[in-house]
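EI: anyone free to look at a 99-residue chain?
SC: sure, send it
EI:
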Amino acid sequence: MERCTVEELCRFANISRSYLYRIFIRNIGVSPIRYVMDIKISRSCYLLANTKMSIGEVAYAMGYSDPLYYSRVFKSIMGVTPTEFRSVSAEEKNSAAPE
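SC: here you go
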């Protein structure tokens, strides 16, 4: 994913940072930064569950330059580490597979 800052988004939309924040809180219920993080973590969950990409590769694919920071963000949102998430996803797939 391409890195996009709130400032770039504001410049693109021709609105102030505080106005963008108010719009997000009123309509979505979270800040612009949290919204982007949630999307990135959601997409990374798909990659972790459905590909053999390493945690570092997933982190870089989601625009994080530091896999350790990505893991901290992931855990703060999902409640488990990316590795734990991948293990649980694999177990769920195996238990759901017909015998």
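EI: DSSP finds six helices and no strands in the chain.
SC: 👍
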